[in-house]
Amino acid sequence: MSQADWESEFLKYKSSPEFAMLNSRMTLDEFKSIYWMEWIHRIWGRAIGITFLLPAIYFTARGRMTKSLTLKVWGIAGLIGFQGFLGWWMVKSGLKDDLFAPGSTPRVSQYRLTAHLGAAFVVYLSMLWNGLTTLRDNRFQTHLTHQEAQASLQAFRNPALRTFKLATLSLFALTFVTAMSGALVAGLDAGLIYNEFPYMGLGLTPPKSELFDTFYSHVPANDKGEHTDLVWRNMFENPSLVQLDHRLMATTTFTAVMALFAWSRSSAHLQKILPANAKRAVHGVFGFAWLQVILGISTLLYLVPVPLASAHQAGALALLSWTMVLGSRVHMSRASIKTLEYFAKHGRLGTRNVAIHQNVAVAEAAQKVQKALGAKVRQPQSANASQRVVGQSGVTPAAV
Ligand code: HEM
Protein backbone atom coordinates (compact mmCIF):
# COMPACT_ATOMS: atom_id res chain seq x y z
CA MET A 1 0.00 0.00 0.00
CA SER A 2 1.16 3.54 -0.70
CA GLN A 3 1.73 6.08 2.08
CA ALA A 4 -1.56 7.75 1.14
CA ASP A 5 -3.42 4.41 1.43
CA TRP A 6 -1.92 3.81 4.87
CA GLU A 7 -2.87 7.31 6.02
CA SER A 8 -6.42 6.76 4.79
CA GLU A 9 -6.73 3.40 6.62
CA PHE A 10 -5.27 4.94 9.77
CA LEU A 11 -7.81 7.76 9.58
CA LYS A 12 -10.63 5.20 9.59
CA TYR A 13 -9.13 3.49 12.65
CA LYS A 14 -8.87 6.88 14.37
CA SER A 15 -12.65 7.18 14.23
CA SER A 16 -13.09 3.91 16.17
CA PRO A 17 -13.88 3.75 19.92
CA GLU A 18 -10.74 1.62 20.47
CA PHE A 19 -8.44 4.36 19.14
CA ALA A 20 -10.25 7.17 20.93
CA MET A 21 -10.37 5.50 24.34
CA LEU A 22 -7.41 3.10 24.42
CA ASN A 23 -4.86 3.82 21.70
CA SER A 24 -4.98 7.58 21.07
CA ARG A 25 -1.16 7.75 21.18
CA MET A 26 -0.72 5.05 18.54
CA THR A 27 1.68 5.93 15.69
CA LEU A 28 1.25 4.92 12.04
CA ASP A 29 3.97 2.26 12.41
CA GLU A 30 2.21 0.70 15.39
CA PHE A 31 -1.05 0.79 13.45
CA LYS A 32 0.64 -1.05 10.56
CA SER A 33 1.57 -3.93 12.86
CA ILE A 34 -2.01 -4.49 14.16
CA TYR A 35 -3.33 -4.00 10.63
CA TRP A 36 -1.08 -6.81 9.30
CA MET A 37 -2.14 -9.13 12.10
CA GLU A 38 -5.81 -8.60 11.27
CA TRP A 39 -5.15 -8.81 7.51
CA ILE A 40 -3.21 -12.07 7.78
CA HIS A 41 -5.98 -13.55 9.93
CA ARG A 42 -8.59 -12.72 7.28
CA ILE A 43 -6.48 -13.98 4.36
CA TRP A 44 -5.67 -17.13 6.32
CA GLY A 45 -9.39 -17.72 6.95
CA ARG A 46 -10.15 -17.38 3.23
CA ALA A 47 -7.24 -19.69 2.35
CA ILE A 48 -8.67 -22.32 4.72
CA GLY A 49 -12.06 -21.97 3.00
CA ILE A 50 -10.59 -22.45 -0.49
CA THR A 51 -8.28 -25.28 0.60
CA PHE A 52 -11.32 -27.12 1.92
CA LEU A 53 -13.76 -26.20 -0.82
CA LEU A 54 -11.71 -27.21 -3.89
CA PRO A 55 -11.04 -30.82 -2.80
CA ALA A 56 -14.65 -31.07 -1.54
CA ILE A 57 -15.93 -30.13 -5.02
CA TYR A 58 -13.46 -32.51 -6.69
CA PHE A 59 -14.27 -35.53 -4.50
CA THR A 60 -18.01 -34.88 -4.72
CA ALA A 61 -17.91 -34.51 -8.52
CA ARG A 62 -15.89 -37.73 -8.88
CA GLY A 63 -18.20 -39.60 -6.47
CA ARG A 64 -15.24 -40.58 -4.31
CA MET A 65 -17.07 -40.20 -1.00
CA THR A 66 -19.96 -42.13 0.50
CA LYS A 67 -23.26 -40.26 0.75
CA SER A 68 -22.90 -39.75 4.50
CA LEU A 69 -19.31 -38.46 4.18
CA THR A 70 -20.39 -36.10 1.39
CA LEU A 71 -23.07 -34.66 3.67
CA LYS A 72 -20.58 -34.24 6.51
CA VAL A 73 -18.00 -32.58 4.27
CA TRP A 74 -20.56 -30.08 2.95
CA GLY A 75 -21.79 -29.49 6.50
CA ILE A 76 -18.23 -28.50 7.46
CA ALA A 77 -17.95 -26.29 4.35
CA GLY A 78 -21.13 -24.52 5.51
CA LEU A 79 -19.66 -24.10 8.99
CA ILE A 80 -16.51 -22.51 7.53
CA GLY A 81 -18.70 -19.97 5.74
CA PHE A 82 -20.65 -19.34 8.94
CA GLN A 83 -17.35 -18.81 10.76
CA GLY A 84 -16.53 -15.98 8.34
CA PHE A 85 -19.89 -14.38 9.09
CA LEU A 86 -19.29 -14.70 12.85
CA GLY A 87 -15.90 -12.98 12.44
CA TRP A 88 -17.54 -10.04 10.65
CA TRP A 89 -20.34 -9.91 13.27
CA MET A 90 -17.77 -9.91 16.07
CA VAL A 91 -15.65 -7.10 14.57
CA LYS A 92 -18.81 -5.04 14.03
CA SER A 93 -19.53 -5.13 17.78
CA GLY A 94 -16.23 -3.32 18.45
CA LEU A 95 -17.22 -0.38 16.23
CA LYS A 96 -20.52 0.54 17.86
CA ASP A 97 -20.94 4.21 18.72
CA ASP A 98 -22.23 3.50 22.24
CA LEU A 99 -18.73 2.24 23.12
CA PHE A 100 -17.72 5.93 23.24
CA ALA A 101 -19.99 6.36 26.29
CA PRO A 102 -18.25 6.95 29.64
CA GLY A 103 -17.76 3.71 31.61
CA SER A 104 -17.85 1.41 28.57
CA THR A 105 -14.81 -0.53 27.40
CA PRO A 106 -13.93 -0.32 23.71
CA ARG A 107 -13.59 -3.98 22.69
CA VAL A 108 -15.58 -6.55 20.77
CA SER A 109 -18.46 -8.28 22.54
CA GLN A 110 -17.24 -11.18 24.68
CA TYR A 111 -20.33 -13.16 23.61
CA ARG A 112 -19.49 -12.79 19.91
CA LEU A 113 -15.81 -13.54 20.53
CA THR A 114 -16.82 -16.73 22.34
CA ALA A 115 -19.17 -17.66 19.48
CA HIS A 116 -16.34 -17.05 16.97
CA LEU A 117 -13.84 -19.16 18.95
CA GLY A 118 -16.47 -21.85 19.61
CA ALA A 119 -17.36 -22.12 15.91
CA ALA A 120 -13.64 -22.34 15.01
CA PHE A 121 -13.25 -25.19 17.50
CA VAL A 122 -16.35 -26.94 16.12
CA VAL A 123 -15.03 -26.68 12.52
CA TYR A 124 -11.64 -28.06 13.49
CA LEU A 125 -13.04 -30.83 15.71
CA SER A 126 -15.56 -31.91 13.04
CA MET A 127 -12.71 -32.24 10.55
CA LEU A 128 -10.68 -34.21 13.07
CA TRP A 129 -13.56 -36.55 13.94
CA ASN A 130 -14.38 -37.27 10.31
CA GLY A 131 -10.70 -37.80 9.51
CA LEU A 132 -10.20 -40.17 12.43
CA THR A 133 -13.29 -42.25 11.76
CA THR A 134 -12.70 -42.41 7.99
CA LEU A 135 -9.13 -43.61 8.52
CA ARG A 136 -10.29 -46.16 11.08
CA ASP A 137 -13.05 -47.52 8.85
CA ASN A 138 -10.58 -47.72 6.00
CA ARG A 139 -8.18 -49.65 8.23
CA PHE A 140 -11.00 -52.07 9.07
CA GLN A 141 -11.71 -52.67 5.44
CA THR A 142 -8.12 -53.27 4.47
CA HIS A 143 -6.15 -54.62 7.41
CA LEU A 144 -8.40 -56.35 9.90
CA THR A 145 -8.10 -60.11 10.15
CA HIS A 146 -11.01 -62.37 11.03
CA GLN A 147 -9.83 -62.87 14.62
CA GLU A 148 -9.23 -59.16 15.13
CA ALA A 149 -12.72 -58.37 13.85
CA GLN A 150 -14.23 -60.84 16.31
CA ALA A 151 -12.14 -59.53 19.23
CA SER A 152 -13.03 -55.90 18.42
CA LEU A 153 -16.72 -56.73 18.18
CA GLN A 154 -16.64 -58.45 21.55
CA ALA A 155 -14.83 -55.50 23.16
CA PHE A 156 -17.14 -52.87 21.65
CA ARG A 157 -20.25 -54.72 22.84
CA ASN A 158 -18.96 -54.87 26.41
CA PRO A 159 -21.16 -52.76 28.77
CA ALA A 160 -18.08 -51.60 30.74
CA LEU A 161 -16.67 -50.05 27.57
CA ARG A 162 -20.00 -48.32 27.04
CA THR A 163 -19.66 -46.63 30.46
CA PHE A 164 -16.09 -45.61 29.62
CA LYS A 165 -17.29 -44.21 26.31
CA LEU A 166 -19.95 -42.16 28.09
CA ALA A 167 -17.32 -40.88 30.53
CA THR A 168 -15.10 -39.84 27.60
CA LEU A 169 -17.99 -38.06 25.90
CA SER A 170 -18.85 -36.20 29.14
CA LEU A 171 -15.20 -35.23 29.57
CA PHE A 172 -15.14 -33.90 26.03
CA ALA A 173 -18.27 -31.78 26.66
CA LEU A 174 -16.86 -30.51 29.96
CA THR A 175 -13.56 -29.53 28.34
CA PHE A 176 -15.40 -27.72 25.55
CA VAL A 177 -17.49 -25.70 28.03
CA THR A 178 -14.32 -24.89 30.02
CA ALA A 179 -12.69 -23.64 26.83
CA MET A 180 -15.71 -21.42 26.13
CA SER A 181 -15.54 -20.03 29.68
CA GLY A 182 -11.87 -19.23 28.88
CA ALA A 183 -12.99 -17.31 25.78
CA LEU A 184 -15.19 -15.16 28.03
CA VAL A 185 -12.12 -14.48 30.22
CA ALA A 186 -10.16 -13.41 27.12
CA GLY A 187 -13.09 -11.35 25.79
CA LEU A 188 -13.40 -9.35 29.01
CA ASP A 189 -9.63 -9.13 29.67
CA ALA A 190 -10.54 -10.81 32.95
CA GLY A 191 -7.05 -12.36 33.11
CA LEU A 192 -5.65 -8.95 33.98
CA ILE A 193 -7.11 -9.04 37.50
CA TYR A 194 -6.32 -11.40 40.39
CA ASN A 195 -2.96 -12.43 38.98
CA GLU A 196 -2.31 -15.06 41.62
CA PHE A 197 -3.24 -18.68 42.18
CA PRO A 198 -5.03 -20.34 44.01
CA TYR A 199 -6.02 -17.17 45.87
CA MET A 200 -8.12 -14.35 44.48
CA GLY A 201 -7.36 -11.46 46.82
CA LEU A 202 -7.74 -12.35 50.49
CA GLY A 203 -9.52 -15.67 49.99
CA LEU A 204 -10.00 -18.44 47.47
CA THR A 205 -12.84 -16.38 46.00
CA PRO A 206 -13.55 -12.61 45.99
CA PRO A 207 -16.35 -11.42 48.32
CA LYS A 208 -19.94 -12.22 47.32
CA SER A 209 -20.82 -8.53 46.96
CA GLU A 210 -18.15 -8.25 44.25
CA LEU A 211 -19.15 -11.47 42.48
CA PHE A 212 -22.84 -10.55 42.28
CA ASP A 213 -22.66 -6.81 41.73
CA THR A 214 -25.87 -4.94 40.86
CA PHE A 215 -23.74 -2.71 38.57
CA TYR A 216 -24.01 -5.44 35.88
CA SER A 217 -27.76 -5.85 36.15
CA HIS A 218 -29.90 -4.33 33.37
CA VAL A 219 -33.23 -4.90 35.17
CA PRO A 220 -34.51 -2.58 37.94
CA ALA A 221 -35.03 -4.18 41.38
CA ASN A 222 -38.47 -5.74 41.91
CA ASP A 223 -40.71 -5.39 45.02
CA LYS A 224 -38.42 -7.70 46.98
CA GLY A 225 -35.39 -5.62 45.98
CA GLU A 226 -34.08 -8.37 43.68
CA HIS A 227 -32.62 -8.01 40.19
CA THR A 228 -33.83 -10.99 38.21
CA ASP A 229 -30.83 -10.97 35.83
CA LEU A 230 -28.24 -10.51 38.59
CA VAL A 231 -26.78 -14.03 38.52
CA TRP A 232 -26.47 -14.60 34.77
CA ARG A 233 -25.35 -11.04 33.97
CA ASN A 234 -22.52 -11.35 36.49
CA MET A 235 -21.64 -14.84 35.29
CA PHE A 236 -21.09 -13.56 31.75
CA GLU A 237 -20.17 -9.90 32.19
CA ASN A 238 -18.44 -9.38 35.55
CA PRO A 239 -14.68 -10.06 35.07
CA SER A 240 -14.22 -11.25 38.70
CA LEU A 241 -16.95 -13.91 38.47
CA VAL A 242 -16.00 -14.82 34.89
CA GLN A 243 -12.44 -15.53 36.03
CA LEU A 244 -13.68 -17.50 39.04
CA ASP A 245 -16.01 -19.52 36.77
CA HIS A 246 -13.09 -20.39 34.51
CA ARG A 247 -10.99 -21.49 37.49
CA LEU A 248 -13.83 -23.68 38.76
CA MET A 249 -14.51 -25.18 35.34
CA ALA A 250 -10.80 -25.80 34.77
CA THR A 251 -10.40 -27.45 38.19
CA THR A 252 -13.41 -29.70 37.50
CA THR A 253 -12.06 -30.65 34.05
CA PHE A 254 -8.61 -31.38 35.46
CA THR A 255 -10.08 -33.51 38.28
CA ALA A 256 -12.25 -35.39 35.75
CA VAL A 257 -9.21 -36.18 33.61
CA MET A 258 -7.27 -37.43 36.63
CA ALA A 259 -10.26 -39.57 37.66
CA LEU A 260 -10.57 -41.09 34.16
CA PHE A 261 -6.85 -41.81 34.16
CA ALA A 262 -6.97 -43.42 37.62
CA TRP A 263 -10.04 -45.49 36.64
CA SER A 264 -8.47 -46.76 33.42
CA ARG A 265 -5.28 -47.72 35.28
CA SER A 266 -6.80 -49.25 38.40
CA SER A 267 -9.68 -51.28 36.93
CA ALA A 268 -8.40 -54.73 35.96
CA HIS A 269 -11.50 -55.23 33.83
CA LEU A 270 -10.95 -51.99 31.88
CA GLN A 271 -7.28 -52.83 31.45
CA LYS A 272 -8.40 -56.05 29.80
CA ILE A 273 -11.01 -54.64 27.43
CA LEU A 274 -9.58 -51.22 26.53
CA PRO A 275 -7.88 -51.30 23.12
CA ALA A 276 -4.11 -50.64 23.40
CA ASN A 277 -4.39 -47.43 21.36
CA ALA A 278 -7.13 -46.16 23.72
CA LYS A 279 -4.81 -46.72 26.70
CA ARG A 280 -2.18 -44.64 24.94
CA ALA A 281 -4.77 -41.93 24.25
CA VAL A 282 -5.67 -41.78 27.98
CA HIS A 283 -2.00 -41.01 28.66
CA GLY A 284 -2.14 -38.25 26.03
CA VAL A 285 -5.22 -36.67 27.66
CA PHE A 286 -3.51 -36.90 31.07
CA GLY A 287 -0.38 -35.13 29.80
CA PHE A 288 -2.25 -32.37 27.96
CA ALA A 289 -4.46 -31.67 30.99
CA TRP A 290 -1.33 -31.03 33.10
CA LEU A 291 0.20 -28.87 30.38
CA GLN A 292 -3.01 -26.86 29.98
CA VAL A 293 -3.38 -26.11 33.69
CA ILE A 294 0.30 -25.11 33.96
CA LEU A 295 -0.10 -22.82 30.91
CA GLY A 296 -3.31 -21.31 32.32
CA ILE A 297 -1.76 -20.51 35.70
CA SER A 298 1.39 -19.11 34.04
CA THR A 299 -0.75 -16.92 31.74
CA LEU A 300 -2.45 -15.51 34.81
CA LEU A 301 0.71 -15.01 36.91
CA TYR A 302 2.58 -13.27 34.08
CA LEU A 303 -0.32 -10.89 33.26
CA VAL A 304 -1.41 -12.51 30.00
CA PRO A 305 1.60 -12.13 27.67
CA VAL A 306 0.54 -12.90 24.06
CA PRO A 307 2.85 -15.96 23.55
CA LEU A 308 1.64 -17.62 26.77
CA ALA A 309 -2.02 -16.77 26.13
CA SER A 310 -1.73 -18.18 22.58
CA ALA A 311 -0.03 -21.33 23.87
CA HIS A 312 -2.86 -21.69 26.41
CA GLN A 313 -5.44 -21.37 23.62
CA ALA A 314 -3.61 -23.97 21.51
CA GLY A 315 -3.35 -26.18 24.62
CA ALA A 316 -7.15 -26.20 24.91
CA LEU A 317 -7.36 -27.44 21.34
CA ALA A 318 -4.71 -30.10 21.99
CA LEU A 319 -6.60 -31.34 25.05
CA LEU A 320 -9.88 -31.46 23.12
CA SER A 321 -8.15 -33.21 20.21
CA TRP A 322 -6.74 -35.93 22.41
CA THR A 323 -10.05 -36.45 24.16
CA MET A 324 -11.56 -36.83 20.70
CA VAL A 325 -8.81 -39.28 19.64
CA LEU A 326 -9.63 -41.29 22.76
CA GLY A 327 -13.34 -41.15 21.83
CA SER A 328 -12.64 -42.40 18.31
CA ARG A 329 -10.80 -45.38 19.79
CA VAL A 330 -13.62 -46.49 22.06
CA HIS A 331 -16.59 -45.47 19.94
CA MET A 332 -17.83 -47.34 16.94
CA SER A 333 -20.46 -46.05 14.51
CA ARG A 334 -23.31 -48.36 13.52
CA ALA A 335 -21.88 -48.64 10.00
CA SER A 336 -18.49 -49.69 11.39
CA ILE A 337 -20.12 -52.25 13.66
CA LYS A 338 -21.88 -53.67 10.61
CA THR A 339 -18.57 -53.92 8.75
CA LEU A 340 -17.03 -55.66 11.76
CA GLU A 341 -19.98 -58.07 11.99
CA TYR A 342 -19.60 -58.88 8.32
CA PHE A 343 -15.88 -59.57 8.69
CA ALA A 344 -16.40 -61.60 11.84
CA LYS A 345 -19.04 -63.72 10.10
CA HIS A 346 -17.39 -64.25 6.74
CA GLY A 347 -13.82 -64.65 7.93
CA ARG A 348 -10.53 -63.64 6.25
CA LEU A 349 -12.19 -60.65 4.61
CA GLY A 350 -9.50 -58.31 5.87
CA THR A 351 -6.89 -59.92 3.68
CA ARG A 352 -9.36 -60.25 0.83
CA ASN A 353 -10.15 -56.56 0.94
CA VAL A 354 -6.48 -55.69 0.54
CA ALA A 355 -6.68 -57.76 -2.62
CA ILE A 356 -9.79 -55.82 -3.67
CA HIS A 357 -7.94 -52.53 -3.27
CA GLN A 358 -5.05 -53.85 -5.28
CA ASN A 359 -7.42 -55.12 -7.95
CA VAL A 360 -9.14 -51.77 -8.23
CA ALA A 361 -5.79 -50.05 -8.65
CA VAL A 362 -4.74 -52.56 -11.30
CA ALA A 363 -8.10 -52.27 -13.07
CA GLU A 364 -7.87 -48.48 -13.10
CA ALA A 365 -4.34 -48.61 -14.52
CA ALA A 366 -5.52 -51.06 -17.17
CA GLN A 367 -8.39 -48.74 -18.04
CA LYS A 368 -5.97 -45.86 -18.60
CA VAL A 369 -3.80 -47.98 -20.88
CA GLN A 370 -6.82 -49.22 -22.83
CA LYS A 371 -8.21 -45.70 -23.14
CA ALA A 372 -4.86 -44.58 -24.49
CA LEU A 373 -5.10 -47.37 -27.05
CA GLY A 374 -8.64 -46.24 -27.93
CA ALA A 375 -10.42 -49.35 -26.65
CA LYS A 376 -13.70 -49.06 -24.71
CA VAL A 377 -13.87 -50.88 -21.39
CA ARG A 378 -16.61 -51.13 -18.75
CA GLN A 379 -15.21 -49.87 -15.44
CA PRO A 380 -16.61 -49.20 -11.94
CA GLN A 381 -17.40 -45.51 -11.17
CA SER A 382 -15.05 -45.39 -8.21
CA ALA A 383 -12.94 -47.50 -5.92
CA ASN A 384 -15.64 -47.21 -3.25
CA ALA A 385 -18.40 -48.33 -5.57
CA SER A 386 -16.47 -51.38 -6.68
CA GLN A 387 -15.62 -52.31 -3.08
CA ARG A 388 -19.28 -52.00 -2.12
CA VAL A 389 -20.37 -54.29 -4.92
CA VAL A 390 -17.72 -56.79 -3.97
CA GLY A 391 -18.39 -56.53 -0.25
CA GLN A 392 -22.13 -56.99 -0.59
CA SER A 393 -22.54 -59.58 -3.27
CA GLY A 394 -19.53 -61.69 -2.50
CA VAL A 395 -18.18 -61.34 -6.05
CA THR A 396 -14.54 -62.33 -6.03
CA PRO A 397 -11.89 -59.64 -6.49
CA ALA A 398 -10.93 -61.15 -9.80
CA ALA A 399 -14.39 -60.21 -11.14
CA VAL A 400 -13.66 -56.50 -10.59
C1 HEM B 1 -8.73 -27.70 31.39
C2 HEM B 1 -8.24 -26.54 31.65
C3 HEM B 1 -8.37 -25.28 30.82
C4 HEM B 1 -8.88 -25.08 29.57
C5 HEM B 1 -9.48 -26.11 28.61
C6 HEM B 1 -8.75 -23.68 29.29
C7 HEM B 1 -9.13 -23.06 28.10
C8 HEM B 1 -9.00 -21.71 27.84
C9 HEM B 1 -9.35 -21.08 26.59
C10 HEM B 1 -9.85 -21.78 25.33
C11 HEM B 1 -9.13 -19.76 26.71
C12 HEM B 1 -9.37 -18.67 25.66
C13 HEM B 1 -8.06 -18.29 25.00
C14 HEM B 1 -8.21 -17.15 24.04
O1 HEM B 1 -9.19 -17.09 23.31
O2 HEM B 1 -7.31 -16.31 24.00
C15 HEM B 1 -8.62 -19.53 28.05
C16 HEM B 1 -8.28 -18.31 28.54
C17 HEM B 1 -7.70 -18.12 29.77
N1 HEM B 1 -7.46 -19.08 30.73
FE1 HEM B 1 -7.82 -21.05 30.57
N2 HEM B 1 -8.17 -23.06 30.38
C18 HEM B 1 -7.93 -24.01 31.34
C19 HEM B 1 -7.35 -23.79 32.56
C20 HEM B 1 -6.98 -22.58 33.07
C21 HEM B 1 -6.44 -22.35 34.39
C22 HEM B 1 -6.21 -23.42 35.44
C23 HEM B 1 -6.18 -21.02 34.48
C24 HEM B 1 -5.62 -20.26 35.64
C25 HEM B 1 -6.03 -20.34 36.84
C26 HEM B 1 -6.57 -20.40 33.24
C27 HEM B 1 -6.47 -19.05 32.96
C28 HEM B 1 -6.86 -18.46 31.79
C29 HEM B 1 -6.71 -17.05 31.50
C30 HEM B 1 -6.09 -16.00 32.41
C31 HEM B 1 -7.22 -16.84 30.22
C32 HEM B 1 -7.32 -15.50 29.46
C33 HEM B 1 -6.21 -15.40 28.45
C34 HEM B 1 -6.37 -14.19 27.52
O3 HEM B 1 -6.84 -13.15 27.96
O4 HEM B 1 -6.01 -14.33 26.33
N3 HEM B 1 -7.06 -21.38 32.41
N4 HEM B 1 -8.58 -20.75 28.71
TrEMBL record:
The keyword Magnesium does not apply. It comes from the Eukaryota. Its main location: membrane. One of its GO terms (biological process) is heme A biosynthetic process. Pfam families: COX15-CtaA. Pathway: Porphyrin-containing compound metabolism; heme A biosynthesis; heme A from heme O: step 1/1. One of its GO terms (cellular component) is mitochondrial inner membrane. The keyword tRNA-binding does not apply. Keywords: Heme biosynthesis, Iron, Membrane, Metal-binding, Oxidoreductase, Transmembrane, Transmembrane helix. It catalyses: Fe(II)-heme o + 2 A + H2O = Fe(II)-heme a + 2 AH2. The chain crosses the membrane at residues 43-61, 73-91, 111-132, 166-194, 246-263, 284-304, 310-328. It comes from Cyphellophora europaea (strain CBS 101466). One of its GO terms (molecular function) is 2 iron, 2 sulfur cluster binding. It is a multi-pass membrane protein. Its cofactor is heme b. It is found in: Membrane. This is Cytochrome c oxidase assembly protein COX15.
